[in-house]
């Protein structure tokens, strides 16, 4: 039985970063398939759909969170910022403490 999840995961590069952060195994790095927490995932990046071999709401939720973090990290890098600390709260929320350099040359912490 295949289960389908609609997501905003549309960038293959960011998805690979998120999967790597989760310790996923790639069936083939050039394919759109991976295994995460024992669940096989197949991606359709055009539609933002993930097909799984089993019920995998928790796995998809974790992947969504790591994908959002990868998006944020890319934007932070683009804006010349850096992560100073990463905290995972007991409920699974990820809190990043960052330093941003503004046009006036000031570096400010953000969270």
Structural write-up:
- There is one protein chain.
- The chain has 111 residues and is an alpha+beta fold.
- The chain is 29% helix and 35% strand.
- The chain has helices at residues 12-21, 57-78; strands spanning 3-6, 25-26, 33-36, 39-44, 49-52, 82-88, 94-101, 107-110.
- Strands 1-5-4-3-2 form a five-stranded antiparallel beta sheet, with helices on one face. Strands 6-7-8 form a three-stranded antiparallel beta sheet, with helices on one face.
- Helix 1 (12-21) crosses helix 2 (57-78).
- The longest helix is centred in the middle third of the chain and has 22 residues, at 57-78.
- The protein is elongated.
- The model has no long low-confidence stretch (mean pLDDT 83).
Strands, total number:
8
Cα end-to-end separation: 41 Å
Major sheet: 5 strands, antiparallel
Helix content: 25-40%
β-strand percent reads: 35-45%
What would you call the structural class?
alpha+beta
Gyration radius (Cα, Å) is 16 Å
How many helices? The count is 2
Large-scale geometry: elongated
Order of helices and strands: EHEEEEHEEE
Q: Give the strand line-up of the largest sheet.
A: 1-5-4-3-2
Mean pLDDT, to the nearest integer, reads 83
Detail the poorly predicted runs.
Answer: none
